[in-house]
Amino acid sequence: MKIAIANRGEVAVRIARACFELGHKSVLLHSEPDVQTIAYRVCDHTALIGPGPSSESYLNIERVVKAAVESGAKAVHPGFGFLSENSNFARACKKAGLIFIGPEPESMDLFGDKISAKDFCESLKVPTLKSYRKKDQSLKTLISEAKKIGYPILIKAAAGGGGRGMRAVNTEKDFESALESAKNEALKAFGSDQMFLERYLPASKHIEVQIFGTKDEVFVLGERECSVQRRHQKIIEEALSPSLSDEQREQVYSYARKLADSSNYLGAGTVEFLFADDEFYFLEVNTRLQVEHPVTEEVFDVDLVQAQIKTALGEKIDWVQDELTPLDHSIECRIYAESPKGFPYIGTLGSLIFGFEIESENIRIESGFESGDTISSFYDSMIAKVICTASTRDEVIKELTEFLESSFVTGIQTNIPLLIEILNHPEFIDASMQTDFFAKHFKDGLEAPLSDEILTQAAKMSLHQSGDDVLFSRGWRS
Amino acid sequence: MKLIELMIDGEVQLALTEQVGADLWVSSKGWSYKIKNFGVNRPKSKKKSLVGNGAITAPMPGQILKILVNNGEEVTEGQALFIVEAMKMEHTLKAPYEGKVSNLNFKAGDSVNSTDVILKIEAKKENAKKNKK
What SS3 class is residue A222? Predict the structure, then answer.
């Protein structure tokens, strides 16, 4: 059948690949600028949703549903971000006769509302961070509740996510201004300025559990650690976490399983926790596929996207929980188009060559762009993911480093040099890194090692060299 | 795009250079550099970039190894003109278009810098028209 992909970049390619492998046809629902992407070229069909701005394309429920229906698609895969966790979109798809590849809208509502999610957790005795989530939003009440929780505090938007409408407050005197600022942002981003307060852990480990629900049972596919983050944006993720004992694993798996079982969760989902001082604290449930799903796929030898499609179509997946045993270690590096100081980089891609002359079965690349494609300003700047899997974590780090160092990118700048530095930082190597790792060591960005003099010489050499253009061959799988 | 070898602190480092739009980029060890103020907006065709006064300069400071043509000689497009040694490598400069060699002012063994005009190629009138796109 025809499956519509309501997303872009590397995940659209990923979904298209799963469709192809299962014998389905793919339709890419895309915006105008995204005709210059790999997804546009590999999908069986394409359908234009609208111009660049997300509000007129990828976030526009009416346009997406219309394009999906008109394309003849029978199902829609929302990817991640955009409308993937929007229950209105899920309902609109159903209403239009489309199969929504994801959880039930009720699950999306339950876990999408941060407050109801925490209420649900507490009812199941899944530990959460101390918080205040009631309707009384008067300043007096909020200040007194903040005092009860104890500083530092996080002011969060009830309808929010992705770090928006969120402010950390260290002392009571900063509370009022932080609250106002957070409320303004929340109102603009989510249409609601209802806030809640939560204990803030400035440094902890980010541990998340992959769940997958079918009509018959809920599978738990291990955990991932994603402590290397910049302003809540993940940069490096790995499976399994190098920081947990088996007992701790079983503990966090049981929490995740309880939540999934009790909510009759269907499809892929991720239960996120913070881990500090030997305690897990529930953060949120993401009712969708996650960016970092490949590391889980690698260590469990499964295909999560295929599983999503099969489940949505009523087909059985042949997993057996007892046989889902993880093997090896896998690390994913997100490649962002950005300057060495961390600002998004817009431009036309010249060459994007990963791991020149390296042949390795351990490397997997998910990329959305090729030479000549344009990185535009409308969307986030992640352009590809490099995943490496090997028997030990040290081996993975070594291989990834070599691979990234042998990469060539022209036309845009990327965070590749930053990734190399992070991977080889002592705190990453010994896995002691926490969520403040990036701010502690890489806040100021990196300085380019090659001088202007050398670069100018290199440029001149290239212009006058009588050498031929170079032909490359890919030595890795994707 | 071209693959070149850079000598950094006594070690050879591979670098990729490529024209992307109007900019020249160099990438090495995962880093990507845009060459700013390189001076000339060089489109992909070498022909276009050297039309003007027909001056052929040395690509970088170095030493002339061999001069392969004489003043007044007719050369064809792509014909080798002279060889410069720089950064332990030999670089052969080729004629960007058909024409006549003039103003040849250097000989083998001379040291040159990148602003020295080694020789000029005077394009034939028809060629000059063709190249003015």
Answer: strand
What is the rounded end-to-end Cα distance, in angstroms, of chain A? 24
* Chain A residues in contact with B4 (beta carbon < 8 A): 458, 461-462, 465, 467
Q: Is the CB of B30 less than 8 angstroms away from the CB of A404?
A: yes
Query: Of A308-312, B51-55, B66-70, B129-133, where does the model show the most confidence?
Result: A308-312
Q: Which of B1, B19, B87 sits opposite A457 (nearest CB)?
A: B87
Detail the DSSP E strand segments found in B36-86: 55-57, 62-67, 74-75, 80-86
Is A469–B2 a contact, with Cβ atoms under 8 angstroms apart?
yes
Burial of A117: CB neighbours in 10 Å, binned 0-12, 13-18, 19+: buried
Position of tokens 């705190």? A427
Partners of B127 in beta bridges: none
Report the alpha-carbon distance of residue A62 to residue A79 in Å, rounded.
Answer: 17
B55 vs A: CB within 8 A: no
Cross-chain Cβ contact A462/B17 below 8 Å: yes
Instruction: Specify burial of residue B22 (Cβ count, 10 A radius: 0-12, 13-18, 19+).
Output: exposed
B17 to A416: CB separation less than 8 angstroms, yes or no? no
In this complex, do B32 and A470 lie within 8 Å of one another by their Cβ atoms? no
A457 and B60 in contact by Cβ < 8 A? yes
Contact B23, B57 (CB under 8 A): no
- Domains of chain A plus CATH, in order, are 2-101 (3.40.50.20), 130-199 (3.30.1490.20), 205-461 (3.30.470.20)
pLDDT tens figures, A429-474:
999 999 999 999 998 889 888 887 778 777 777 766 544 344 332 2
pLDDT above 90 as % of chain B: 19
The pair of three-digit structure tokens given for residue A303, joined into one six-digit string: 């295909």
Q: What count of residues does chain A have? A: 478
Identify the three-state secondary structure at position A148: helix
Nearest by CB to A411, from B8, B25, B91: name it: B25
The residue type at A426: P
Q: How far is B103 from chain A (nearest CA, A)?
A: 20
Q: What pLDDT sits at residue B53?
A: 57
Q: What's the predicted TM-score (pTM) here?
A: 0.81
Q: In Å, how far is B43's CA from the nearest CA of chain A? A: 11
Report the alpha-carbon distance of residue A33 to residue A57 in Å, rounded: 11
> Looking at the partner chain, which of A348, A406, A459 has a beta carbon nearest the beta carbon of B17?
A459
Of B17, B23, B94, the CB nearest to A466: B94
B93 lies within 8 A of chain A by CB:
yes
Q: In chain B, which residues fall in CATH 2.40.50.100? A: 55-131
B37 alpha carbon, distance to own chain's centre: 17
B68 touches chain A (CB under 8 A): no
- State both tokens at B31: 């880093």
Chain A: closest CA distance from residue B98 (Å): 17
* Domain B55-131 = CATH 2.40.50.100: yes
pLDDT in tens, A191-212: 888 999 999 998 999 999 999 9
CA pair distance A337, B66, nearest whole angstrom: 45
